[in-house]
Amino acid sequence: MERSKEVRTIGVWVVILALILRLFTLAPLENEAFLSFLVYLQTGRLVRYSDSPATTVPPTTAPKPSLPVPQPSKGLQFTAADANNVEFYDFTAIGPDLNALLLQPLDWTLTGEDPTVLILHTHATESYTRQEGEIYEESSAYRTFNASYNMLSIGEELTRVLESGGISVLHDRTLHDYPSYSGSYDHARKTIKAYLEAFPSIRMVIDLHRDALDLGADTQLTTSATVGTEKSAQLMLIAGSDRNASHPNWQENLGLSVKLTAILEKMYPGITRPLQLRQQRFNLDMTTGSILVEVGANGDSHTAAIVAVRALGAGILALAHGANL
After folding, report:
1. CA–CA distance from 168 to each of 107, 115, 119, 157, 160 (Å)?
2. pTM score > 0.70 for this model?
3. Does the pLDDT at position 129 exceed 70?
């Protein structure tokens, strides 16, 4: 009897090993069943993939730029009155002086041949509410691997705007939230570190996200603004502090976010949501020119997010030659 059980056990393991080997022989890094299996092992979530290649937006039907690309100014001059354009939520109880941070000099030049801006996405698979005619597979609610509709597309548009204004940009397309969402910031930190070591010319690191809030009954958070004659999502900048971890330059980073919020509101009134100061540092401690931007929310359309990120690019171009110098 014991011998029979042993034979059956060996037989079961042979079958399991055969199945695993079969998965590996089906181009494991490209096989959808294998990828789903990896996600399940690391997260416990079943992820469904499309059986067909992801649908992309043909160049002829992609949203056309309508915002003029401003040429970088020779340096902005802020006044104390500009702080009135910045709505601010402090979740740290630190109480920073926004007027002083706004007027603090920003001494940099982002234009030139060497890369000065790094764009990345800690949560690259975040996406928006699908609209009529947008056909793509969601890996989970408001998330997709389709680069034409997730945050990679938002980063591509920002790259286009900045490069049109003479800024050399590096756009990292790593899916830091795949296959494990919980380690996203740790993965992104390694990516940022590698870029900063390889390109010492980088002055600004931009982490693009989209916000989310499930309001129940299929109602999702939406934002609304107008840029020119176009409907736009809103932008929200989030700054980190040293409450939970070392972040010696958090005030300088906050000052950059204050300046950018102020100029965005001057250029496109209503485009920003309140700037937030949080206890976490969100990898913003790695450069003095780090910002985290929420481009719209999961209830917004992808088209509205594209309009918003073009406005963000215009604001960054306005700061390309510094401020208060």
Report:
1. 18, 5, 11, 14, 10
2. yes
3. yes
